[in-house]
Amino acid sequence: ALPAPARAEGFFDGIKDAFGAIGDFASDPLAAVSNAINSIAIAWMQGICRTFLEEGYTILSRVKLSMSSDFTNLLGSGTGLYGLVHTAETVIVQPIAISVFGVVMLLRLIDIAGKFDGSNAMPGLREIFMFGCFVFLFETLILNAEGMFWGIFQICQGAADRLIGTYDASLGDIGSVTFAFDSGSVPDVGSMVLMTLMSVVFCGAAMIASWIASLKVLARGVQIYVMTALSPLGFALLGSDSTRQMGIGFLRNFTAVCLDGFTIAFIILAFPLALTSMASTGSVLIVDATDLFTKVSGVTTLSFLLLWSLLHSSQWTRQVLGG
């Protein structure tokens, strides 16, 4: 507790400030009321800005948690969609792929027979052995296409999981970034109106970015399931020289879809790091009147950069694989 003289001094200082405010009001009531309204409006808008900025940041910091690593539950547990994928692949697509491969084998047999018609010679042991290995290899690929696509997904998704795990282990909870205002530099009402509008735009962009990220994760899951159901056809197309490029493109596109999870995770994790780099002290982003526009416009620009990156993530992944 403060000693009696200090408490008395603080009491008299409060009375002096009260009489000073009354004196200002008596001398110029309009100016006193205007200053009071400005102070209330600035404090109110500062609270709104802080709420929108921190809420938008919190929304973005949680997006990465929606990505599933379970191949059988890419769209959520209990959906039963993987059972549909397995049934379509084994009952419908696999017989079609075997039929396509049978036609490819027939054409190859005709080609081998044509080589020996002119010389009236029997096919050599090498041709017979290579043909048998060819049939065995592609039949194995067609019958186990679903499992091979599952393995490709696990490899690609494992890279995204390791990225998220390393990030969380080394940097901790990035969602603790807060926004504060420099008490020694009070902005005017016009600047605060601009900052309020920018903070609302930032929070709206954050919500849209989270929706796009969630939509891309779900759309990626649907695309993976569709391509897995059609996976036997991709291996069957590899058997013919005329359709081999189609089969290679099918496998490359599936790998790109799986790797898109890594790209999405990288983009989502990069945004909090970029925002944290703007922090003035530790995990606190301090805003004053001198750099008001720079700080808030930088945060808003980062949110739109996040939107643009998420919309182009699939294109970037295909470019890595030459697609």
What do you see in this structure?
It is a single chain. With 323 residues, the protein is mainly α. 77% of the residues lie in helices and 2% in strands. The chain is built from ten helices and two strands. It has helices spanning 4-27, 29-61, 81-117, 125-143, 145-171, 189-229, 231-237, 244-276, 292-311, 313-320; strands at residues 178-181, 284-287. A two-stranded parallel sheet has the order 1-2. Helix 4 runs antiparallel to helix 7, helix 5 (145-171) packs parallel to helix 8 (244-276) and helix 6 runs antiparallel to helix 8 (244-276).
Number of helices: 10
Q: Major β-sheet, in short?
A: 2 strands, parallel
Overall mean confidence score, pLDDT: 74
Distance between the termini: 73 Å
Order of helices and strands: HHHHHEHHHEHH
Class from secondary-structure proportions: mainly alpha
Q: What portion of residues is helical? A: over 70%
Strand order of the largest sheet: 1-2
Give a concise summary.
By secondary structure, this protein is mainly α. The chain is 77% helix and 2% strand.
How are the elements arranged and paired?
Layout: H1 4-27, H2 29-61, H3 81-117, H4 125-143, H5 145-171, E1 178-181, H6 189-229, H7 231-237, H8 244-276, E2 284-287, H9 292-311, H10 313-320
Parallel strand pairs: 1-2
Helix pairs in contact: 1-2, 2-6, 3-4, 3-6, 3-7, 4-7, 5-8, 6-8, 6-9, 7-8, 8-9, 8-10
